[in-house]
TrEMBL record:
It comes from Euphydryas editha. One of its GO terms (molecular function) is nucleic acid binding. Residues 23-90 form the DUF7041 domain. Gene3D superfamilies: Ribonuclease H-like superfamily/Ribonuclease H (3.30.420.10). This is DUF7041 domain-containing protein. InterPro entries: DUF7041, RNaseH_sf. Coiled coil: none annotated.
Amino acid sequence: MESENSTIKVEEPVQTITVSSRIPEFWQDVPRLCFIQAEAVLHPQRLTDEAKCHLIITKLGKDAITQVTDILESPPKTGKYEVLKNSACQVVVRNFIQGFGISVMQRPTRSPDLNMIERLLDHLKRNVQSHDSAPTTLQELKDAVIQEWDTISLKRKF
């Protein structure tokens, strides 16, 4: 009599299974460290962006996966792994901040128009470009950015 286990077919390549087993389960409290370790395992494999993303998804627990549902349901065309990594890390920071009773505005992911840093950098870029003479060396560019940075008021809203 043949056992039930002897008829199971393995459809995944053994290499993929081995790589997956070396990636830790998602560490919700220290996601950056989790991704650093995962990248150390994934780097020599030379996997595609999508393959890396799928391997990481298999390591996400229920709590983590529900936090990045928007990314999983409508992934970007390129850079899926980086978007998933950044989103997972942002969730931890947001949860940490909310733990102190600080409310966080819900904004759509990947929206540079609503990102204050993007708006600040755009402001700096426009002001540097508005100078009479464009910087021609790296040092001139640094000086121009520092000059514009010093003119920004902390009261200005971006």
